[in-house]
Amino acid sequence: MIKKCSGALASLSLLTLGGVLFSAASAVSAQAAQLPGIAGEQRPTLQLIEKIALPNVVGRIDHMALDAKRKRLFVAACGNDTVEVIDYPLGRVFCTLKGFSFPKGIIYVPDFDRLYVVSAGDGTIRVLDSGYRPIETIRIGFAADFITYSTVTKRLYMTIDENGGGIMVIDAQTNKVLDFIQTNGTPEDLQVDAKGEFLYTNIPDDSDHVNVINLKTKEIKRWAVGARSPIPLALDDASRRLFVVTRKPAQLVVFNIDTGKEVARLATARDSANMAWDKDRKRIYVMGGEGRLDSFQQKGPDSYELLDSIKTEVEMRTGILHQTRGMLYAPVPAHGDSPAELWNFETHNHD
């Protein structure tokens, strides 16, 4: 039964669902063993252990965020104009946040205990407090998309399609717009290095390069990828490597960020919008919208191999890794009579 949560403001409708759980983890594990690409003598690197129902969610699902302190996941259900708040230890929807316009980018910032939701439909960022009450609305332009944060600079960086495309820089303490960095094309993904010195971004509209932005000087360098439509990016600060997945063709390309040189290239899942870097296991997980999830092992900074490919569902192209729990969460949009779900994969060593 859906009930209103107390403390919700009129500008955002807050609904809660109690007791919604697709199935117990043990039951889903039994189902997972029957899925093509998961069964086999060798245990896969990722094991499907749970499917969490996302009731009343229709349409496209985009990015996710994590609040480890409260044990919450946030799912930007852009086709539904909602943000689904997941209680991941209990495996159920905790709250549904309404009042957005095609929410895409989303991030929780522990430094200020705030949730930032980027709505592409009206070109705004909604800033919410720890109780999911609106604090402020930042108006930034249309076609806003991905957002990330640097713990060093205390700034948010967001991709927008404004003045030819660029990066909006926002002070996370004051929520004030500080700068706009022109990129001559609309970027879709961002990675900021651990020192807060460089920003790595793509221009996915059939381009064949990534941009490297010096945040101090604003100088932009272009690295040729050798394939078109680079979409998801990930960064391994320890090994100084940037991971790029392209769509035309579907490839994982690895760069040495000190030299800008390519060091590895492998075929991967098609139609990916997101990947995750597992720093503990030295692995890359690529979520492909074709219905495939690839796991790559970093054998050395310049050496990589495909460990396995798991059959998933069409349009499962985003996700988030909970590093400390060793869990990868990936949403599946609703199709026909099949409801939207959040799939939970447990990471394993490759036996």
Q: Mean pLDDT score, rounded?
A: 89
Strand residue content: over 45%
Low-pLDDT residue intervals, each spanning 5 or more residues: 1-11, 16-40
CATH topology category name of the domain at 35-54 and 230-351: Methylamine Dehydrogenase, Chain H
Number of helices: 1
CATH homology superfamily of the domain at 35-54 and 230-351: YVTN repeat-like/Quinoprotein amine dehydrogenase
- How many strands appear in the DSSP assignment? 30
CATH architecture of the domain at 35-54 and 230-351: 7 Propeller
Major sheet strand order? 1-2-7-6-5-4
**Structural class of the helices, strands and pairings?**
mainly beta
Instruction: Give me the Rg, rounded.
Output: 19 Å
Characterize the biggest β-sheet: 6 strands, antiparallel
> Roughly what percent helix?
under 10%
Report how far the terminal alpha carbons are from each other. Answer: 44 Å
Shape category: globular
CATH top level label of the domain at 35-54 and 230-351: Mainly Beta
Supply database-style keywords.
30 strands, mainly beta, disordered N terminus, single chain, 351 residues, six-stranded antiparallel sheet, four-stranded antiparallel sheet
Question: What is the compact description of this entry?
Answer:
The protein is mainly β and 351 residues long. The protein has one helix at residues 25-32; strands at 2-4, 14-17, 46-53, 64-67, 72-77, 82-87, 92-97, 103-109, 114-119, 124-128, 134-139, 147-150, 155-160, 166-171, 176-182, 190-192, 198-202, 209-214, 220-224, 228-236, 241-248, 250-256, 261-267, 272-278, 283-288, 292-300, 303-311, 320-322, 327-332, 341-347.
